[in-house]
Amino acid sequence: MRVVKEEERGSPMKKRICSRKWELGEATEGGATKGRLPNIKDMSGLSADDAISSVVIESEYSCRCFSLVEIQSMTNNFNEELVIGIGGFGKVYKGFIDNSATAVAIKQLKAESNQGAEEFWNEVKMLSKLRHTHLVALIGQCNDCQEMILVYEYMARGTLADHLYNRSRNETEISTFHLTWERRLNICIGAARGLDYLHTGTDQSFIHRDVKTTNILLDENWVAKIADFGLSKGTTSNSATHVSTKVKGTFGYLDPDYFYTHRLTKKSDVYAFGVVLLEVLCGRPPVDTSLKEEEISLILWAQQHIKKGKVDRIIDPSLSGQITPQCLKYFVEVAYNCLHTSPKKRPTMGEVVGTLDLALVSQRKGRSEGMIGKMFKGIAIVPKGMNQWWGERKDNGSKSGPSKDLFWEPLSNGVTRPLRHFSLAQIRAATNDFKQRLTSVEGTTRDLPWCSTMTTTSP
């Protein structure tokens, strides 16, 4: 990719040429004709062969070049009322393209931001080349008058983090919508598919390097899309094992192996995605300094509870009663394995997608068969022997790390052990004849002499 010198950017004639190529439909060297910006829904069909060369960037990639005047028109001269996001990089505005009803997101990078020119062009290069349902589409860029601006498809629902942590974007069309378990699961599957495409979908693999809940965006239909490719790295080939590079990313999501060795691999993305999965399940950020010392790190806190067979204690209380047992088994296992200290023992993103798909199938099957059912005041009674189901080996009862027998039954066969049948007398004994005092606090659990309990509610 060749970046044109600064004095060339300022040439009014060259800027007009760039704009006119899109307006009039100028033929490229390959014979393809370029016209006005295509509809966003049609952009997934664009390929690298359909690219045009612009004034600012000359490459094989397709990307519209906007003038600063056009950007000012789209944002009503950067009206603060149109700001939908603020970060260390600058601000994101909502705008409308070509005086139409097509909304776009316009990210204006601050000149002094950490996300400098190198990352700006890196994102232009990558997103102009890659098209996928679960990657945010780049519409164009503006490098006019020393501005660095990126124009993306508009994602009406904001980020996954917005909904996990009830962050408001002050958008009238976005309501504070609680994410159900099945919706969270679908979002995870979509994001995983996007990462799998980056890793394996092209001849040259790409490593995102900054996977986190704020970089998973949601459209109006709750379709998840991976965003922010400023830190991404491309490998020399699909079979390349790693890239040696400076450590960059976000604290709380960094792969420890990458941090210590500076060897960036696809499994570094897998590790970060494992953190995302825990956030989705637990409803808390990777690092929370307001908590007790042993709870500050989400990873360490969650792993300890999983090893001790106390998964029920880490689940987001708002999800009480929504997750079927078999679905939870699949989900917890894949999250746990993504966080293995050894990159080689982590699953690929393709394997993550497969396991999450099985979790979704199990969730829907379990709900349809009434596996959760109506529970007495939010308490479901589970046989004591099923403690192994939460993290102990079935052979010797010892605690185990991530392995195929992390749960009491290998997940590969897809068979769910039958639940124990209780008599009414046993249920009355377990609940002290259905006394209200046993369930006075919603979401609590209680271990009885002959059974363990798991919080849940009526569906």
TrEMBL record:
Coiled coil: none annotated. The keyword Kinase applies. SUPFAM superfamilies: Protein kinase-like (PK-like) (SSF56112). GO terms for cellular component: plasma membrane; plasmodesma. Its main location: membrane. Keywords: ATP-binding, Glycoprotein, Kinase, Membrane, Nucleotide-binding, Serine/threonine-protein kinase, Signal, Transferase, Transmembrane, Transmembrane helix. InterPro entries: ANXUR1/2-like, Kinase-like_dom_sf, Prot_kinase_dom, Protein_kinase_ATP_BS, Ser-Thr/Tyr_kinase_cat_dom, Ser/Thr_kinase_AS. It is a single-pass type I membrane protein. The keyword Nucleotide-binding applies. It is found in: Membrane. GO terms for molecular function: ATP binding; protein serine/threonine kinase activity; transmembrane receptor protein tyrosine kinase activity. Pfam families: PK_Tyr_Ser-Thr (PF07714). PROSITE patterns: PROTEIN_KINASE_ATP, PROTEIN_KINASE_DOM, PROTEIN_KINASE_ST. This is Protein kinase domain-containing protein. It comes from Camellia sinensis var. sinensis.
